[in-house]
Design a protein that fits this description.
The structure is a homotetramer. With about 350 residues, chain A is α/β, with parallel strands linked by helices. Chain A has nine helices and 15 strands. In chain A, the strands form two sheets. Chain A has a nine-stranded mixed β-sheet. In chain A, strands 3-2-1-4-5-6 form a six-stranded parallel β-sheet, sandwiched between helices. In chain A, a hairpin with a 5-residue loop joins strand 9 and strand 10.
Chain lengths: ~350, ~350, ~350, ~350
Amino acid sequence: MSLGIAVVGAGYWGPNLVRNFRSSDEWDLVAVCDLDEARARKVIGSRSSIEIETSLERLLSRDDIDAVAIATPARTHSTIALAALDAGKHVVVEKPLADRHADAARMVERAKERELVLMTDHTYCYTSAVVRIGELIADGVLGDVLFIDSVRINLGLVQPDVDVFWDLAPHDLSILDHVLPGGLRPQSVAAHGADPLGTGKAYLGYLTMPLPGGAIAHVHVNWLSPTKIRQMVIGGSRRTLVWDDLNPQQRLAVYDRGVDVEADRVAAAISYRLGDMYAPALPEREALASVAAEFAAAITEKRPPRTDGHSGLRVLDVLEASSRSLAAGGAFVELESLERV
Amino acid sequence: MSLGIAVVGAGYWGPNLVRNFRSSDEWDLVAVCDLDEARARKVIGSRSSIEIETSLERLLSRDDIDAVAIATPARTHSTIALAALDAGKHVVVEKPLADRHADAARMVERAKERELVLMTDHTYCYTSAVVRIGELIADGVLGDVLFIDSVRINLGLVQPDVDVFWDLAPHDLSILDHVLPGGLRPQSVAAHGADPLGTGKAYLGYLTMPLPGGAIAHVHVNWLSPTKIRQMVIGGSRRTLVWDDLNPQQRLAVYDRGVDVEADRVAAAISYRLGDMYAPALPEREALASVAAEFAAAITEKRPPRTDGHSGLRVLDVLEASSRSLAAGGAFVELESLERV
Amino acid sequence: MSLGIAVVGAGYWGPNLVRNFRSSDEWDLVAVCDLDEARARKVIGSRSSIEIETSLERLLSRDDIDAVAIATPARTHSTIALAALDAGKHVVVEKPLADRHADAARMVERAKERELVLMTDHTYCYTSAVVRIGELIADGVLGDVLFIDSVRINLGLVQPDVDVFWDLAPHDLSILDHVLPGGLRPQSVAAHGADPLGTGKAYLGYLTMPLPGGAIAHVHVNWLSPTKIRQMVIGGSRRTLVWDDLNPQQRLAVYDRGVDVEADRVAAAISYRLGDMYAPALPEREALASVAAEFAAAITEKRPPRTDGHSGLRVLDVLEASSRSLAAGGAFVELESLERV
Amino acid sequence: MSLGIAVVGAGYWGPNLVRNFRSSDEWDLVAVCDLDEARARKVIGSRSSIEIETSLERLLSRDDIDAVAIATPARTHSTIALAALDAGKHVVVEKPLADRHADAARMVERAKERELVLMTDHTYCYTSAVVRIGELIADGVLGDVLFIDSVRINLGLVQPDVDVFWDLAPHDLSILDHVLPGGLRPQSVAAHGADPLGTGKAYLGYLTMPLPGGAIAHVHVNWLSPTKIRQMVIGGSRRTLVWDDLNPQQRLAVYDRGVDVEADRVAAAISYRLGDMYAPALPEREALASVAAEFAAAITEKRPPRTDGHSGLRVLDVLEASSRSLAAGGAFVELESLERV
């Protein structure tokens, strides 16, 4: 018995959702909803009995739909999601969960009240690389995390109403939220941005986040660079991991190298490990297929999904703090407590 | 007619200077000076008539020495250099020029008074890659510089009395000083460092430097990462350059790609260029050999060398401001004017 | 007005054909035909009105089908294709065109008699990389072709009834057929294979093909190597091209380097060019989508497709000669004339 | 107590020998011998008491020389080496040992009669990569060797009197001789060459060598390609090794992947291993320094060096057979027994 789902939004990300829910065994893709009927029709193609809906209200009143997947602009997420939850539908939302923390918090509360699943589509967290990174940290293979450096640069699809932080950093932040024990909970964040084309918003920038114990996380996002780089280095007290997402033949490399410093000792007590590297074999599976499967499993098993609304909230919290830091000339901004929710 | 030179300091960098001055046509390596005679002897090897001096005073009193190359710890640079200048010797100093801006300024003044050449050994500026980058910017191939992102990470030789900024960033800063039109003159600098091993100093960190016109330069230095990365991206309004110093078969790549934004227009006026890349052929020559040649040419032609004392001063200025920013919790620190010198 | 097509064979390659014909504007995917109805149904998915046929006879008798795409085992190609041509359907066949040259020749003749399009699905020839290589050679950018070295190695899906040459070399040979002026017409071929696992057939091997004018083409195919390599070097008298198909960020590199030898002169007349490299920007499009478009265009414009039956025949000719060389212990085997057809 | 050595030949390779014997603790570089006195003087530089000799006879009559290192053209090796051996000097010879097998055999015999060390300077065999490869095979980590594929291509220094096989293949063959258990003893060899510039000799070519048990070794040497490739894949029954000598950060990679075939079973009994990869850490040391050390150790310990005259002979045997195969149009040529020596 498969669950009925509708995809709302047939723009940039919607077709990917359509393709994956369509080929999923757990799901029956019942309808695609978009104000632009022709766009929706193009996505489902000919010789298909998937239905087109141009009215959200009509869509949500259907009985054959258990859940909706929302892939509309971020500023519309909360309105659509709240309506869906109120109609008794489970909801998965494209990142970011909303464009304001307060709206997202309402979504989380509503889902809790209605006892429905609210999932953030943090797609990267379902790649085999990120899953493995999470395991390597949880299993102590890397030791304590000393630093995380994440670079995500490529010629960007400049978007009208968001800057580069809101467009790209949700990827890095959601990954950190997934792999760091306890989730992404930096004490503060500083954002340095640049607008060299004079457009009124940052086209490239850097986030610095001190972590407990002297560790640090740093994110470089960039819409202007002609080459794609998607690389993350996670330095640990025991081993260091390099993730190069654009090298499909060797995405992860774990280096048994590092610097050992004996506490309470002089400089001479520094020693170096120069051991081997190993690159774990990773299964190739489309991450969105795992998103679809996890969404179905969370509903069936009546449990929160791996990337639930709270993870979406933590990411939003950092994004909002980053915007405040940017407005304050790059000063560190404390993060507001997430405990309110 | 070759010039006589002595190398002072037979430690880490001294042997490289010895090797290059020894094989230079313009120079006659007369002596190596070190307090540790055995170490000096090991550097010059057997069957050699290069002399060993253990007294700086005796060395500087020799008539067959026109110049000295200083490769001692940074805190000793100014004392040795001032003595050499006072003895009428031209001086080239390993980076950084001194460990304090004020000392370096004295060196620059003294050299000016004595009409002697004072050169900073910014070795990277003599690689064929950096020379070519300087030409590409000067010739307008890249257009206006929009951003510079420099990464220099590898398992570091942790040094007892300096942090990672003072150890590694002089390379990046001297390169920026060489390739930016007008030299390295950021308005301010913010430094974020991390000391995850609890040693009392930064083992990795980031420098952010706003440049005129909304551009930005950013430097990542790191002693903890197991893989070597030495990469710089220079984004320009016309083309973008990627320098990967560890890829000898393709060190420089110039991409005819970018984002064009028409001023005073709406978002729809953004367009993308997705053109070809070209990788210029670069001659292979050891950079230090060019340092030796430039030092001789500056003396002979009675002109400042390409990396003179002022470039050393500009680099020191940023390093000192970085230390102040670090002490101030990462706040932006204005740079003091270099015009005093 | 779109053309009706059916895909025959829902095994390994069939689903790719289904996906591309389904999303093509020129085509209407009417039916999928397979003896295994469940397998066919899985390929088209639910909520689809694409029809399933388990009888080839019934399929070919339909009026709403203009063409068939055949993705069955090679030994069945000619029987199915001849039946389809006799039923008045245009035909595109997965490589190799057939498992015997004589059968393929019959297919070519029958298509000619019936004035129907017969196309070989040499998918690689529709990648933007191969299209550009063909242009670079045709436009004289590379000069005369001096040598071609092609390597195609990766852990293979060992197939029960073919050796590594018949499985992998059709890719290389069809690419050579496309990019070489006049098509692939080697004078002879030598095949060296190895069967180190003792299975009774070659798991890796090498083809050597002397080309007119002293040039040479060489192909390395390998089922046993754990890393994927798909690389081709085409050395020309003016420039040399390197195609690394697994480097999506720089698939093609054209080097302005080479050796110039002045004829009728002594050895001293050799000179070297060490110029720049450039990497052309390539559009990203799925090659099979272009196969579908070219098949439709050939039918509509009543012309042969770019990879017609004759190109399939030339590839088969080399494969059969390779098998004869292998049986003869690696001796060079002359190619039989293709002119018979 | 160090041994006295002289380097004979100050051309292409001589300066490398001079540099390494000069800085070796085991050796005292007494003299450099070349007919061209100025060239020899340039190699040793100024302020050196290393002596210049222009007469081989005078050099060999000196008492302070225990050994000579020969880096002259290959056709002069045997004459010089025999004279040195007759004068009681130990001898190390640049590859190839001689230009004819018969001459090299005389050298081996003479050294044996005089009880002197004769070493072939197979430099690659002293790199940490090749040493490790030898250990991995000897320790059974790779299992049985199934295939070896070696590629050595780059824009060559075309030499007047040898073809590409004699210039480049000695590297590959000497490596195979070192890593294969029992040394390089192929049953036969086929050579395919191409002369696309019409110079009268091969500029690129391929060697195929069947090995016992159905295994195969294949070597691609090429003077015409603009990019450097130095790569060797060694497929084993347990693991497969990839050596990329131009990737200093990851020269060796050992893949726990492969194809397992159960003997006497049907095709369905094929299974695949898709395990991790590991890249062993390798010490960085100049290989020629190890050549110098091994030469000294062999003399002191009165034992054959790791790359003795016999290894030089085995390499020559294959080179001569390759030339015969080339002359015979690429037919397999049996190797003459090495047991005669």
